[in-house]
Amino acid sequence: MPKVKREARSRRTIIVGGVAGGASCAARLRRLDEEAEIIMVERGPYISFANCGLPYHIGGVIDDRDSLLVQTPESFRQRFSVEVRVLTEVVAIDAEAQTVTLRDLENDSETDLSYDSLVLSPGASPFLPPIEGVALPGVHVLRTIPDMDRIIEACEDSTPGHVTVVGGGFIGLEVAENMVHRGIDVTVVEMGPQLMPNLDFEMAASITDACVRHGVEVWTNTQLTAIKQAGDDLQIQTRDGKERSTDLVMMAVGVRPTTELARGAGLVLSPRGYITVDATLRTSDPNIFAIGDAIEVVHRVSATSGPMPLAGPANRQGRLVADIIAGRERTYCGPLGTSIIQVFDITAACTGISEAAARRMDIDHQVVWINAPSHASYYPGAETITLKAIFDPAGGKILGAQGFGKDGVDKRIDVLATAIAAGMTVAQLEELDLAYAPPFSSAKDPVNHLGSVASGVLESDHPACSWRVTEEEEDLLFVDVRTASEFAAGTIDGAVNIPLEELRARLDELPRDTQLVAFCQKGLRGYLAARILLQRGFEVRNLLGGYRLWQLVTDCQK
Amino acid sequence: MPKVKREARSRRTIIVGGVAGGASCAARLRRLDEEAEIIMVERGPYISFANCGLPYHIGGVIDDRDSLLVQTPESFRQRFSVEVRVLTEVVAIDAEAQTVTLRDLENDSETDLSYDSLVLSPGASPFLPPIEGVALPGVHVLRTIPDMDRIIEACEDSTPGHVTVVGGGFIGLEVAENMVHRGIDVTVVEMGPQLMPNLDFEMAASITDACVRHGVEVWTNTQLTAIKQAGDDLQIQTRDGKERSTDLVMMAVGVRPTTELARGAGLVLSPRGYITVDATLRTSDPNIFAIGDAIEVVHRVSATSGPMPLAGPANRQGRLVADIIAGRERTYCGPLGTSIIQVFDITAACTGISEAAARRMDIDHQVVWINAPSHASYYPGAETITLKAIFDPAGGKILGAQGFGKDGVDKRIDVLATAIAAGMTVAQLEELDLAYAPPFSSAKDPVNHLGSVASGVLESDHPACSWRVTEEEEDLLFVDVRTASEFAAGTIDGAVNIPLEELRARLDELPRDTQLVAFCQKGLRGYLAARILLQRGFEVRNLLGGYRLWQLVTDCQK
Fold it and tell me: Closest Cα partner for A38 from A23, A51, A50, A53?
């Protein structure tokens, strides 16, 4: 029989916030220590609810509202023997005395409680920009179950014909899709140049494309300046002078960390206003820990500090703090920022750092794209996946990866996230031994393929350029190596067509004093063409991602 | 512009075998060297066909036969400028003279050709056990397009009512499923104690269960001894005296490497009869390489040598040999043996070494199982995945992993294969930052969960036992901590029922002088119960994989 380990007996731990990280922390601490006194305090009426599921209940994808309540205060008490106080706010911390002041929001009474360890998991709240009309009753946010209930009520009371979603991030787009599921017209208003700013521009174009194909109006580079009541309707106005009548406005422009309590207690905050923690997730007070959306963490790849408001990291942080409170030595290794979104038929995901972030942080990097089938192309249901790798040109260490497609994107990004966590190089991706049968992959998985292309670029075997080549360079000759019928259906302006299979016989048609860009639909034939031309002494590069990616970006920029 | 790299000019390379590794090698070599002379010789009529797709065309899942012909000799010639000789056999190698003798199978003429490098990719052929009736016209194998055509013809000429599949591995089971798709009754006859011998027994039970649920008769521990013609029908007989009338017999009991040519050339073969190669995939003759199903390779985890007849490794080996022939320094890092099968609604997969292999090779190991939802349980379509980790008890390095379920198994096995390739520990699995949104995963992915449970067992936090406990131990008290209604629907013989939520209040009902085994449906509540009981001084273990896995195995053993 395994022996019982002696745990340092934690005495009283108070956890502020009962969702995500807070609840994980409480449950883990109880598992480690049956005798610890654990008090979990939650301002709202619910704990441990499925916040990521809220948009889907609005659209009816998740039918049963109760299924969103993963744990109730009562079930949590029963299972974990944790004292749960909902509708209770911690209004003050006396860090020196190690006490907190609790306010019961139902009867407005206050009590002081002492703690040995305090865990702050206060989360964040939706940011409301200071514009006219933001407080009108038809303007909504979505963070909590009551928020969701209000939106559904508004949709049911007087079925809106049109909803304006302000903000093109996770919540905004998930709400947009679910409003379409309800049969409502949607306009997405995004201040920045693209949807999903955690993705690079060309990868986010897949999301814009999915929205537009499903009837969503997408306004990027557009700043909302006012919301006005106009009879029963609302009227939105933008800085560039657009106006639109709408029935409901969903504000999803980002969140702000909930830090009043930490600030009041004198804890150190970051310049951006997040709670500062060390590698043990301790705040500037050693008895006070902080986790989740309100803290800044050190990114595993970039080693820079920043917020990472995601459920996975919050969960792991809660668990780790419980371990430390129970007397174990642990340090937090930092997140990779792996995230994923499904918008209509497209899934887009990323991990590690983006190309834009690498550029912003001046991290030396190289980039490749591939298109590959989600599984054997001869087996039904194969869909093209586009993958991107961002890697270190000195040695090939993978810094980040992104992908989009209709199927199998989550798998490839998870494999790449694992490879990044392990410090792998692109050459090692090539050698990964992944599970192949026709319904699942190809003998050469898209991740192997991505590794091959990146290695080829690294080793100068694969002369390559990006979809930006048509914006950034001049005096190039584009050589479309697809078939005549593919060429006829649309190509890059000025391109000449020499199908790959005819290339060796038609080399004399190509100039030797001009830089060539070979391209095909997805990138493979262009690569083969570039290899042929390179060895015959031409100056040539292959257009990575092919005409397919180039066209997606070009359409999105229109 | 990238510079042209100087490649060591390969002169003439002859590749024996034009499927999988052979075709990969030819294509890669051409990309590296436009001037190399490359001759690919294939005994059959087709090159580069989708051998993994053959069973699915029999069942009509893959409708279009032509889609299986990934490349034709003509398309391969055009694209890669490779001389392709089909219906041509290499009948002899003179290693000293560096020549091969080619026989044209159509006109039976022979020619000698010299080579600078020779690549053997001869593959393997189906093994036919020396039993009575194995040569009868109703007995089939499936390796090539003509094999497939014959089986389809047999199914169409006189629709069989019953097919006997001999052998419960990949090909056998894929054919069995596809025969069911054609409306044909199927019996699978397997000599060993389980289907899918690369999986551990309890994981393979999921495949048996899927077969039985879909009407397939499964005879394990059954050796076929004779096939007799009985009028239009066949009659099969087994060692244990079973007889059965059947219309068609599919022999899928394994393959034998095609090594006559290598043997004739005096190349060194392994004791098992495979071609021996070094880390550069060179045979005992430095100008002759060998790849694919006919060679033995060194497993990346166990470091033992053995065959690995899988498409992914063959593909990478072909590519690597081309690199070496083109003058690059490369070494093969060995396969992990990652493989996957879909049988009806169940997918089962594995990577690294199995528990059975670890035991056989006397590798110190520990094992855990978990059940977890394929994605957020509140989002539609979530299915339970069962995962298993085999890891080193000293330090937690992952040695192998297996999984089964209806959705998302391929993703988790690929993540685990990547983790194994990187030499990760189970503690690192816990920290992986994987892509989470409700349609794809949970905030704690099943792989994180697997890591947590394995770490818990490693750190003695999680006292655990396996599904074998009821076979191997006596005088245990089983404590079913599920609800009363779950208990009533079926439990382990002799178990007492104390729902988890009541456990703390009912501790005095449990004996302190008896070893307890707590269990629930999937393993989580059992773990929580074990933590409570352990800390209250009981001797207790949690049944890993829960009643669910225990019941699956027990049903399969009936």
Answer: A23
CA-wise closest residue to B369 among B234, B109, B550: B550
The answer to whether the CB atoms of B435 and A459 lie below 8 A apart is: no
pLDDT at B68: 95
Nearest-CB residue to A3 (from B67, B460, B535): B460
Q: What is the pLDDT of residues B441-454, one digit of tens each?
A: 999 999 999 999 99
For chain B, positions 185-204, list CB contacts with chain A under 8 A: none
One DSSP character per residue, B354-395 reads -HHHHHHTT---EEEEEEEESS-TTSTT--EEEEEEEE-TTT
Q: Is B94 on the interface with A (CB under 8 A)?
A: no
pLDDT in tens, B384-441: 999 999 999 999 999 999 999 999 999 999 999 999 999 999 999 999 999 999 999 9
Who contacts B237 (Cβ-Cβ below 8 Å, separation ≥6)? B224, B225, B226, B227, B228, B243
Cβ atoms of A411 and A351 closer than 8 Å: no
Q: Is A52 a catalytic residue?
A: yes
Do residue A378 and residue B335 have CB atoms under 8 angstroms apart? no
* Rounded alpha-carbon distances, angstroms, from residue B496 to B304, B349, B490: 46, 35, 12
A-B contacts (CB, under 8 Å) = 275
Cβ atoms of residues A526 and A501 within 8 Å: no
What's the burial of B2, exposed, middle or buried (CB within 10 Å: 0-12/13-18/19+)? middle
Catalytic residue chosen out of the listed positions B52, B155, B211, B520: B52
CB-based burial, B399-429: b 16+ in 10 Å, e otherwise = bbbbbbbbbbbbbbbbbbbbbbbbebbbbbb
CB B1 within 8 A of CB A541: yes
- Report the complex ipTM: 0.96
Rounded Cα gap, residues A23 and B201, in angstroms: 37
Chain A interface includes B22 (CB < 8 A)? no
Can you tell me the distance from the alpha carbon of A378 to that of B53, in angstroms, rounded to the nearest whole number?
Answer: 8
Per residue in A55-74, pLDDT tens? 999 999 999 999 999 889 99
In degrees and rounded to multiples of 5, residue A439 shows phi and psi of: -75, -10
Under 8 Å between Cβ of B368 and B453:
yes
Which residues between 457 and 476 in chain A have a beta carbon less than 8 angstroms from any beta carbon of chain B? 459-461, 463
Residues facing residue B338 across a β-bridge: none
